[in-house]
Design goal:
The structure holds 2 protein chains of 2 kinds. By secondary structure, chain A is α+β, with helices and mostly antiparallel strands. Chain A has a single domain, classed as Glucose Permease (Domain IIA), CATH 2.70.70.10. Helices cover 11% and strands 23% of the residues of chain A. Chain A is built from 2 helices and 14 strands. In chain A, the strands form 4 sheets. In chain A, strands 3, 4, 6, 7, 8, 9, 13 and 14 form an 8-stranded antiparallel β-sheet that branches. Chain A has a two-stranded antiparallel sheet with strand order 1-2. Chain A has a two-stranded antiparallel sheet with strand order 5-10. In chain A, strand 1 and strand 2 form a beta hairpin. In chain A, 49% of the residues are buried. Chain B contains 6 helices and 11 strands. The longest helix of chain B is centred in the first third of the chain and has 12 residues. The relative contact order of chain B is 0.21. A 6-stranded antiparallel β-sheet of chain B has the order 3-4-5-10-9-8. Chain B has a two-stranded antiparallel ribbon with strand order 1-6. Chain B has one domain. Chain B is globular, with a radius of gyration of 19 Å. By secondary structure, chain B is an alpha+beta fold. Classes of the chains: A alpha+beta, B alpha+beta. Chains A and B meet through strand 6, strand 7, strand 13 and strand 14 of A and strand 4, strand 5, strand 6, strand 7 and helix 4 of B.
Chain lengths: 247, 169
């Protein structure tokens, strides 16, 4: 009886993100979480158009215990490029309310127009982080915060880099430069405000969102490589903690 | 029992796979190590505790406006040039240790040549020297028009000019 129940639970879990054996395509099944209505598609399940191949089924939490990079929920992790109003997405406004609702959609490894060296993507190229929309489409309103205690190592035209005490580097793109609450070399604590989410991309504008990525070093034998790792599972974990009120 | 549980929870919070990479220290060029004109204070003071070879492009070695953020296991140096920021960073920490048979990381393990990649308007390259991982990049104010962020030649030129200016064993 016990084995039967275990098998039943395992079957239920795998069915949330299974492949259609007839077509080989990934089924569009949302994963639900008890609380605040939060739902999300499985890791690596990109928008089923021509948006590329994600790291399907990789639920490994590469950056454990990080804080969610936006100060408050709700937040919406989804594609800027293939979503409504995006360059390759359905026509509409970037501020369309459908861009500001669950379920979350992974966009790590998403196909973009330029060459990107991404050894952890199935095709070897793709988007090196994820795009996150804040609660609503207001510009320069919602704060991004430090995901880990560390030091601000770099501030560029539209990039801020935080090196956490874990040695991981977290990159925050498109924060309003005038809103930055940190300076180069400043030590920050987990949850400290960094700057407000905007459409800043230097002299060119992008949509209002936060691009967030994680770079870390993977060692194998006496060699190592510093690579962008999938943030999706780490962010789902962090977001659930945020929703529970224990970020 | 409670103590055992506490210990188990604490262990789960510590990433046992992380650590510090060993360095194969290179034979240093004495000209770079003790230059005829001393490097600016901002550089020498900034990296005084850094325990990895500190590379920077030779043409910026005397730029007094550089910004240095460093500790014993990493450094990041930024140079502010005309409407762009050049950055070099070195880091000797690692967060994941895997076996060569781990299929999840197949492409990571594969040897690859140094590539110059444009992503999010930033031209960058990642490379490993002496067991340490480095990133060299340039971020432009106008990434759509600025050739330095569209074409790899500017960054490749900086890459070819990298010299060691410090770091202690």
């Amino acid at each position: 009886m016990r084995y039967f129940l275990i098998a039943l639970v395992a079957l239920a879990l795998t069915s949330c993100a299974s492949k259609d054996t007839d077509t080989g395509k990934v089924k569009e099944v949302e994963q639900t979480w008890k609380g605040k209505g939060f739902t999300y598609y499985p890791s690596g399940q990109l928008i089923p158009s021509n948006s590329g191949r994600g790291r399907y089924g990789d639920n490994y939490i590469y950056a454990p215990h990080i804080r969610f990079p936006l100060a408050y929920a709700p937040a919406y992790l989804n594609s800027q490029v293939y979503g409504i109003g995006g360059r390759y997405g359905p026509r509409g406004s970037l501020c369309d309310k459908r861009n500001y609702q669950y379920p979350w959609r992974d966009n790590f490894c998403e196909k973009r127009n330029r060459k990107r060296s991404m050894p952890l993507c199935p095709t070897g190229t793709g988007h090196q982080g994820v795009d996150i929309r804040a609660k609503d489409c207001r510009d320069n309103t919602h704060y991004a915060v430090a995901v880990e205690e560390g030091v601000i190592t770099y501030i560029g035209s539209y990039s801020v880099k935080l090196r956490g005490i874990s040695g991981r580097t977290y990159r925050y793109l498109h924060l309003n430069k005038r809103s930055l609450q940190v300076r180069r070399g400043q030590r920050v604590w987990r949850g400290q405000k960094i700057g407000r989410v905007s459409d800043n991309m230097g002299s060119t504008k992008t949509s209002i969102h936060l691009h967030f990525d994680i770079k870390q070093t993977i060692r194998f034998g006496n060699r190592s490589k510093r690579v962008y790792v999938p943030p999706y599972a780490s962010l789902i974990d962090a977001y659930k903690r945020l929703l529970r009120g224990r970020p | 029992m409670r103590l055992l549980l506490t210990i188990l929870i604490l262990i789960s919070y510590i990433n046992a796979e992380s650590g510090i990479l060993d360095i194969n220290w290179p034979k240093l060029n004495p000209k770079h190590q003790k230059p005829s004109t001393p490097y600016p204070n901002v550089l020498t003071k900034g990296i005084k505790d850094t325990k990895l070879p500190v590379y920077i492009p030779s043409n910026y070695a005397y730029d007094e406006k550089m910004a240095v953020v460093a500790d014993k296991d990493f450094y990041t140096i930024s140079f502010f040039i005309d409407k762009a920021t050049v950055m070099i960073a070195g880091d000797r920490s690692y967060q994941e240790s895997i076996s060569k048979s781990d299929t999840k990381f197949e492409k990571v393990i594969k040897e690859s040549p140094v590539e110059f990649i444009e992503d999010e308007g930033v031209m960058s390259t990642d490379f490993n020297r002496h067991g340490v991982n480095y990133t060299l990049s340039i971020e432009c104010e106008d990434y759509t028009e600025d050739e330095r962020c569209k074409d790899e030649s500017f960054l490749r030129n900086l890459y070819n000019r990298l010299i060691i200016v410090g770091g202690k064993k």
